[in-house]
Design a protein that fits this description.
GO terms for molecular function: acyltransferase activity, transferring groups other than amino-acyl groups. With 185 residues, the protein is of the alpha+beta class. The chain has a single domain (6-181), classed as Aminopeptidase. It contains four helices and eight strands, in the order E-E-H-H-E-E-E-H-E-H-E-E.
C-alpha cells in the first residue's frame, strides 16, 4: 500500500518526510540494511549476511506497494533515507487476520530524535484503519531505548524467547514478544 507523504519535525527541529517505499529505493535499502546491521547488536543479521539482490528487494517492495494490508514506511531528513518502519500481516489465514507485525530500524545517528515514534504512530494508525486488532513485535532484551518507546506507545511484554540470538563471540541474548491491542475507530 502507499500513503501520501507526511511531514513532521523531529526533536532537533529538522524536517522529516515520511513516505511509502518506492521501487527506486531498493538499492539504498540494501545498503541501509548492511549499515544498520553493523551499527547495533539488536538486529537479526550480521552485515555480511545481507545478500539480498536488487531484483529480490524490488520484488519485496513491489509486494508491499501492491498489498492492501501491508506497508513499508521510510523516513528522510534532508533527502537522506534515515529509517524504515514496516507493517506486515502475520499470515493470510482468516484466523490470523486480526494480527499484524511491526518492525522498525533507524540509522543510529537518528535514534532518540522522535522519528521512530512518529513512524510507529503512523504505522499503528494505518493498522487500526485496516481493521487489525493487535500489533505485535519482537525486541532484543537490553534494547532499552526501543523497549521504552514501545511501552510508551502501549505495547506490553507477553513473553520471553530465551537465548533468541547467539553472537559470534558465543554469547546469547533473550528477546521479548510484545503486543498492543488496537482500538478500531
Amino acid at each position: 500500500m502507499t500513503l501520501e507523504p507526511i511531514t513532521i519535525t523531529d526533536k532537533l527541529g529538522r524536517t522529516v518526510e515520511l513516505r511509502s517505499a518506492r521501487l527506486e529505493d531498493a538499492e539504498d535499502l540494501i545498503q541501509y540494511l548492511k549499515v544498520t546491521c553493523g551499527e547495533t547488536p539488536y538486529l537479526i543479521r550480521e552485515p555480511d549476511e545481507v545478500t539480498i539482490t536488487l531484483e529480490d528487494e524490488r520484488n519485496f517492495l513491489k509486494s508491499k506497494i501492491e498489498s492492501d494490508r501491508e506497508l513499508m514506511l521510510l523516513a528522510f531528513v534532508d533527502g537522506k533515507h534515515v529509517g524504515n518502519c514496516s507493517l506486515m500481516s502475520i499470515a493470510s489465514y482468516r484466523r490470523y487476520q486480526h494480527r499484524c507485525d511491526v518492525a522498525i530500524a533507524l540509522y543510529q545517528d537518528y535514534c532518540g530524535c522522535g522519528i521512530g515514534k512518529a513512524m510507529l504512530e503512523t504505522v499503528l494508525d494505518v493498522a487500526t484503519k485496516l481493521g487489525y486488532e493487535q500489533a505485535e513485535l519482537e525486541v532484543v532484551a537490553g534494547n532499552e531505548g526501543a523497549i521504552s518507546l514501545y511501552e510508551k506507545l502501549g505495547f506490553k511484554k507477553y513473553g520471553t524467547f530465551p537465548d533468541n540470538m547467539k553472537y559470534a563471540d558465543g554469547t546469547y541474548r533473550d528477546a521479548y514478544w510484545m503486543m498492543k491491542k488496537l482500538e478500531n475507530k
